[in-house]
């Protein structure tokens, strides 16, 4: 009997040992392999844009920066653009900016200016195979918050170069200049160069009239409604600097006398928006 009990115990021990071998107490968990994400795709996923100020005065430059959203919460980072596998990188604002910077080395920041008040949406667009694969956006509010565009008469600019703005859609650049002297004044003019070909005087007048009307409203005097002699008289009365200009339209606000003028007076070749502080 004892022999039979011993034999049964041995068989049970062998079976228990085999069971432990086949079914361990802590089964090994096999994790399925994760699909690898490429370095380029990770960079594209993390790219975002940032600006310090969303409300800006027209003609005053504001910077938009590109940063790695995941790794740099301070908005400052270097993007390894050589390893971002896209076809093009476009900076875009309707009617203001459309610029492809893929071929440039420096894609970290871009200065943006506006020449008309309004609300604008900025988009950084990454294209691959003619499709937008990433869009990063910002909104801006442009205001004309100084006495005349980007000039405050009581606290005038230190430099004569006040600012500039662009319309890549229409193909022009506008510069603003401040002139010191006994009677300071500021003027806004179209810039011409390789990137911005010269416009006809009438087209230049059209662009500048649009900028002035958007900012200052309907002119108080305009050549379409008033006789030229009446505009000349009003211009001479308001402006201390007796420049050889022909006024086309005249505005007034609380701080400034403003006019769209043609120059030279007797054979107009170009147009300006000019202003002086009210005396």
- Domain module count: 2
Number of strands: 15
Output the radius of gyration.
34 Å
Low-confidence stretches: 19-24
Q: How does the overall form come out from the CA principal axes?
A: elongated
Span of the ends, CA to CA: 129 Å
Count of runs of 4 or more consecutive helical residues: 4
Beta-strand percent range = 35-45%
Question: Which structural class matches the secondary elements?
Answer: alpha+beta
Q: Mean pLDDT, nearest integer?
A: 84
Roughly how much helix do the residues carry, as a percent range? 10-25%
Could you give a short account of the major beta sheet?
7 strands, antiparallel
Order of helices and strands: HHEEEEEEEEEEEHEHEEE
Q: Strand order across the biggest sheet?
A: 9-10-11-15-14-13-12
Oligomer: single chain
Quick summary:
This protein has about 280 residues and is α+β, with helices and mostly antiparallel strands. Helices cover about 20% and strands about 35% of the residues.
List the keywords.
single chain; 279 residues; alpha+beta; Immunoglobulin-like; 2 domains; 7-stranded antiparallel β-sheet; 15 strands; elongated
How are the SSEs placed, and which strands pair?
Blueprint: H1 2-22, H2 39-46, E1 47-50, E2 55-57, E3 62-68, E4 88-93, E5 97-100, E6 109-112, E7 118-128, E8 131-143, E9 161-167, E10 172-179, E11 185-191, H3 201-216, E12 221-222, H4 228-238, E13 246-252, E14 256-263, E15 270-277
Parallel strand pairs: 2-8
Antiparallel strand pairs: 1-3, 3-6, 4-5, 4-7, 7-8, 9-10, 10-11, 11-15, 12-13, 13-14, 14-15
Any overview of this molecule?
By secondary structure, the protein is of the alpha+beta class. It has 2 domains: 39-143, Immunoglobulins (Immunoglobulin-like, Sandwich), CATH 2.60.40.10; 161-277, no CATH class. Helices cover 20% and strands 35% of the residues. The protein contains 4 helices and 15 strands. It has helices spanning 2-22, 39-46, 201-216, 228-238, and strands at 47-50, 55-57, 62-68, 88-93, 97-100, 109-112, 118-128, 131-143, 161-167, 172-179, 185-191, 221-222, 246-252, 256-263, 270-277. The strands form 3 sheets. Strands 9-10-11-15-14-13-12 form a 7-stranded antiparallel beta sheet, sandwiched between helices. It has a 5-stranded mixed beta sheet with strand order 2-8-7-4-5, with no helix packed on it. A 3-stranded antiparallel beta sheet has the order 1-3-6. β7 (118-128) and β8 (131-143) form a beta hairpin. Mean pLDDT is 84; it is low at 19-24. Residues 1-19 form the signal peptide. Keywords: Signal.
């Amino acid at each position: 009997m004892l022999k039979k009990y011993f034999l049964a115990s041995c068989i049970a021990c062998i079976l228990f040992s085999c069971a432990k071998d086949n079914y361990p107490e802590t089964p090994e968990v096999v994790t399925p392999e994760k699909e690898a994400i490429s370095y380029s795709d990770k960079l594209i996923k993390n790219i975002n844009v940032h600006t310090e100020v969303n409300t800006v005065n027209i003609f005053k430059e504001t910077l938009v920066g590109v940063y790695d959203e995941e790794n740099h919460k301070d908005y400052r980072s270097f993007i390894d653009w050589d390893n971002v596998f896209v076809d093009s990188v476009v900076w875009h604002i309707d009617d203001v900016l459309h610029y492809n910077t893929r071929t440039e080395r420096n894609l970290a920041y871009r200065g943006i200016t506006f020449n008309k008040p309004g609300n604008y949406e900025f988009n950084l667009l990454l294209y691959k195979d003619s499709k937008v694969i990433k869009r990063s956006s910002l909104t801006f509010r442009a205001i004309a918050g100084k006495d005349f565009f980007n000039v405050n008469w009581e606290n005038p600019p230190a430099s004569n170069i006040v600012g500039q703005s662009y319309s890549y859609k229409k193909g022009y650049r506008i510069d603003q200049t401040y002139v010191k002297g006994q009677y300071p004044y500021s003027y806004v003019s179209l810039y011409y160069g390789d990137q911005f070909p010269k416009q006809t005087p009438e087209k230049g007048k059209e662009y500048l009239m649009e900028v002035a009307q958007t900012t200052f409203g309907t002119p108080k005097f305009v050549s379409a409604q008033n006789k030229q002699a009446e505009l000349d008289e009003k211009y001479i009365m308001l402006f201390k600097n007796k420049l050889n200009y022909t006024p086309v339209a005249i505005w007034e606000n609380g701080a400034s006398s403003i006019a769209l003028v043609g120059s030279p007076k007797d054979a107009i070749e170009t147009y300006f928006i000019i202003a002086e502080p009210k005396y």
